[in-house]
Design goal:
TIM Barrel; three-stranded antiparallel β-sheet; 14 strands; galactonate dehydratase activity; Galactonate dehydratase
Length: 382
């Protein structure tokens, strides 16, 4: 079996896909993308084609290592996202060849289903209580929301109070034991993060996410000392070496590697195992499409420390198309009582709607994240 064709696609709302074909008729799909830099990642996949053509797609570890180590410059969001999508596609092919889900090839399931959460609110969150109650009524046991709008490095307490009011409204609407994850989104700097984390304690959140950016990972310990809330982070880290630094820095309770950013199934499986040795939980980041979600679930199935999974159905970013539009077997994501069963089909278990993929690719999206500014005109973290 040899790789003979590689095709890339950019489709709404903001996703990128790669299709790898073999000379004996197998096709694998991956989702290589950095939100806002999709065309750049696509170009990186195209640059990697000479390393892939004619290779045996079953030699996943060797191909991964060649893409990572043979280029001299390595790591970073663009290269690791390109590799992630390629890696997903290779695992998809391997599973199809052996007529087994990827998780069976990784050692088999250690759980029967995966707890999921749903997003509520938007970039500037509002009406989150009603949305959270709707998700609860649909069977979800947890939601995630953006905590706040833009915050200066030191800002006013009225913005803090607005966050507390939103979280309080969800707690009141959904009850004491409903899971509330609060994403600081890297918008909050340490001085305000300490205040906000301490004041959120009374609402017993499931976790707070990115209270500060990982470029300031040494500060997680200080925030952890201030507030008894689990801290989650990791969507902006891309290799096992990045996560080693994070785990050694301490203070983090949950890691959130992204299966389309952090080197794919091959690398995230290693990252998850490393976190388990630190008694740190796994909750993969996934505000993306159907292939990325299936890749996450494959790793969740075989990782003891996985406890909840993000998914993007209903998320505010998905305009034009959603997760289920690009697959012909949407029943694979029939959530029940807030849980998903693992895909049963071979490989990643997705039957891709290639016709829609090709139609969308005729007018590739150019999604960019917004540029925010503070009242004084300075750039704000989005």
């Amino acid at each position: 079996m040899k790789i003979k064709e590689i095709h890339t696609y950019l489709v709404r709302p903001r996703w990128g896909f790669v299709e790898i074909e073999t000379d004996d008729g197998y096709t694998g799909w991956g989702e290589p993308v950095i939100e806002g830099r999709a065309a750049t990642v696509k170009a990186c996949v195209e640059e990697m084609k000479p390393y892939l053509m004619g290779e045996d797609p079953g030699n996943i570890e060797d191909i991964w290592t060649k893409l990572y180590r043979a280029g001299f410059y390595r790591g970073g969001p663009v290269m690791m996202s390109a590799m992630a999508g390629i890696d997903q596609a290779l695992w998809d092919i391997k599973g199809k060849k052996y007529n087994a889900p990827v998780y069976e090839l990784l050692g088999g399931k250690c759980r029967e289903k995966m707890r999921m959460y749903s997003w509520v609110g938007g970039d500037r969150p509002s009406d989150v209580a009603a949305a959270a109650k709707e998700r609860k009524d649909a069977g979800f046991t947890a939601v995630k929301m953006n905590a706040t709008e833009e915050l200066q490095i030191v800002d006013s307490y009225d913005k803090i109070d607005a966050v507390l009011e939103r979280v309080a409204s969800i707690r009141e609407a959904c009850g004491k034991y409903f899971g509330i994850a609060i994403d600081f989104h890297g918008r909050v700097h340490k001085p305000m993060a300490k205040i906000l984390a301490k004041k959120l304690e009374e609402f017993a959140p499931m976790f707070i996410e990115e209270p500060v950016l990982c470029e300031n990972m040494e500060e997680f310990k200080e925030i952890a000392r201030i507030a008894n809330i689990p801290i989650a982070t990791g969507e902006r880290l891309f290799t096992k070496y990045d996560f080693r630094r994070l785990l050694n820095a301490g203070g983090v309770d949950i890691i959130q590697p992204d299966l389309s950013h952090a080197g794919g199934i091959t690398e995230v499986k290693k990252i998850a195992a490393m976190a388990e040795a630190y008694d740190v939980a796994l909750a993969p980041h996934c505000p993306l499409g159907p292939v990325a979600l299936s890749a996450c679930l494959q790793v969740d199935a075989v990782s003891y420390n996985a406890f909840i999974q993000e998914q993007s159905m209903g998320i505010h970013y998905n305009q034009g198309h959603g997760v289920l539009d690009f697959i012909k077997n949407p029943q694979v994501y029939a959530f029940e009582n807030g849980y998903a069963k693992f895909p049963q089909g071979p490989g990643l278990g997705m039957e891709i709607n290639k016709e829609l993929m090709e139609e969308e690719n005729k007018n590739p999206h150019e999604w960019k994240n917004p540029v925010w500014r503070h009242e004084d005109g300075s750039i704000a973290e989005w």
